[in-house]
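dumping this here so i dont lose it
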């Protein structure tokens, strides 16, 4: 890997195509890697708080707050295309070519961005959920809005239990939801807008080299989604690694991504 250390600021604001400010941070040296966080969290509240530092031993790591979270702005209405443009704005800061790493719903968002033609060289995806059924009447989103009207904690708990499917024993071990996380709870509605209608076959045109990672201790349906993506994408492979429910430790995950990047193809040309 190229170990040349980038110069310039290590954090800042980049404006997306619609003018929304997107807050970003940079660390490390080596090939560019952009992280896309999961639902309802920022750089400060991510469930993978130490992963950027581990990745930064091998990569130039770019993290950012998705719109509606942390230090980033938002807009009056939501459209997943705006999130794609946010990611493109962050990729535009890199020297390229960029690997995009996404976790959980952030991995599904990365797939949607690649499908749309975003300038992503490689995809590394940790346990992306695939919600095959579409939601043309927005019933999924409407229920989320009803939960939010009852309070951010209600929406957060409903999403974890009924959408994510957190097992009772895992839920019992989770720490109380932080106030900072609850402040960003309205952004959970973004996932309720873009997750429905994401079967694996939707992404069969995504030709970027793709690594799909799942824990050996995660939910069986996540393994199923990973196998479906491996079958449908032209250049994808699934690795089942030692881990816990919906997670793989930083060192194991970083090693897998490093092997993948070292063996990936030369950069594609983007029209």
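and the seq i came up w/
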């Amino acid at each position: 890997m190229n170990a040349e250390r980038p110069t310039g600021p290590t954090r800042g604001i980049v404006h997306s195509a619609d003018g929304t400010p997107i807050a970003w941070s940079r660390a490390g040296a080596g090939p560019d890697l952009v992280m896309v966080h999961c639902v309802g969290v920022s750089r400060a509240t991510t469930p993978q708080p130490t992963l950027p530092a581990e990745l930064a031993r091998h990569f130039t790591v770019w993290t950012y707050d998705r719109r509606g979270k942390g230090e980033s702005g938002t807009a009056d209405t939501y459209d997943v295309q705006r999130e794609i443009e946010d990611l493109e704005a962050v990729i535009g800061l890199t020297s390229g070519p960029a690997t995009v790493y996404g976790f959980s719903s952030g991995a599904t968002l990365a797939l949607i961005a690649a499908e749309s033609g975003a300038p992503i060289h490689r995809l590394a995806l940790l346990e992306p959920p695939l919600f095959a059924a579409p939601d043309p009447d927005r019933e999924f989103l409407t229920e989320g809005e009803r939960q939010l009207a009852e309070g951010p904690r209600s929406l957060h708990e409903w999403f974890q239990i009924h959408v994510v499917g957190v097992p009772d024993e895992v839920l019992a071990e989770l720490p109380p939801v932080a106030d900072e996380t609850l402040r960003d709870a309205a952004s959970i509605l973004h996932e309720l807008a873009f997750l429905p209608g994401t079967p694996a076959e939707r992404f069969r045109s995504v030709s970027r080299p793709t690594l799909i990672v799942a824990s050996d201790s995660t939910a069986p349906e996540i393994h199923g989604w990973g196998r479906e993506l491996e079958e449908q994408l032209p250049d994808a492979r699934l690795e089942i690694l030692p881990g816990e429910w919906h997670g793989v430790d930083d060192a194991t995950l970083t090693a897998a991504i490093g092997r993948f990047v070292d063996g990936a193809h030369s950069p594609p040309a983007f029209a």
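The longest strand covers residues 21-28.
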